[in-house]
Design brief:
There is one protein chain. It contains 9 helices and no strands. By secondary structure, it is mostly helical. It has one domain (about 20-264). It starts with 12 loop residues before the first helix and ends with a helix.
């Protein structure tokens, strides 16, 4: 007699991994934002509120933009890439702190927690970017850059840098859990010195030279150079890419050595 067919087909390893990743992403969204679209919508709108609150403050105070005549465009082009970098680098670290008990299951690895949070943050950042572009269009600002590929490259560099620094942060909190608060304070320094609120190239050359080591400043100028091609902004794109890739490599290497501590 022929053998009975199995009741359920065995899933391929790749398919099983995708199901695990999908489950982690859904759990991440439901636990952080609540079991409704409203909770997720608030998180998507939060960086948008940050950008437009900044624009509103400088508009009501009648402070002119340091570059060009459009305040909204100047501040948005600097704030968006910096916020994308900071949100990803912070949330990747928080994902491990919040979901560490899941690593007790053999199907869930530390890398899976990092990857699922990265994917969620990329989608969230992309939706926020669409909202910012839409609102800029509504208020009469042209959000189309003179060099679209340069703007896209700066946005992708912000994502990669966020992943790299976030991976380093995961390794650090394996040894120093208090770094979750420490990085929040450090992020303020990065933001203030990133050039979102001012044009760094107007500073004395000595100060500007030191500030250019801040990769967040390079991101802001990278995207702005796509909108202000005649401003003479000098962006070291290789530095940003190398910095981000190096952080990813170092972070993954360190995680291999602290994973037992994080899961213990």
């Amino acid at each position: 007699m022929p053998e009975p067919a199995p009741s359920r087909a065995r899933k391929a390893p790749g398919e099983a991994y995708l199901h695990v990743l999908h489950a982690l992403m859904l759990r991440d969204m439901r636990t952080r934002f609540g079991a409704s679209l409203w909770g997720y919508g608030v998180v998507v709108l939060w960086p948008c509120v940050h950008v437009f609150a900044l624009i509103a403050i400088y508009t009501f105070q009648k402070i002119s933009a340091p570059l060009g005549s459009d305040r909204a465009l100047f501040f948005a082009t600097g704030a968006v890439p910096v916020l994308v970098f900071q949100y990803i680098s912070r949330e990747v670290m928080k994902s491990v702190v919040m979901n560490r008990p899941l690593t007790y299951y053999p199907q869930v690895k530390l890398f899976d927690l990092i990857l699922s949070r990265v994917l969620v943050e990329i989608v969230t950042g992309f939706l926020a970017l669409i909202i910012v572009v839409s609102v800029l269009t509504i208020i009469g600002t042209d959000p189309v850059p003179s060099a679209p590929l340069t703007a896209v490259g700066g946005y992708l560099a912000a994502i990669m840098l966020g992943i790299g620094v976030g991976t380093i942060n995961v390794a650090i909190i394996g040894f120093f859990p208090g770094w979750l608060i420490g990085y929040a304070l450090f992020s303020i320094i990065l933001y203030v010195s990133s050039g979102v609120l001012f044009l760094p190239s107007f500073l004395p050359e000595m100060i500007y030279g030191w500030l250019k080591y801040n990769p967040a400043l390079q991101l802001a100028e990278w995207v702005r150079s796509a909108y202000y091609p005649d401003a003479g902004l000098q962006v070291d794109q290789l530095y940003v890419i190398t910095f981000g890739a190096t952080c990813v490599g170092i972070g993954l290497f360190l995680i291999r050595h602290v994973v037992s501590k994080l899961q213990g």
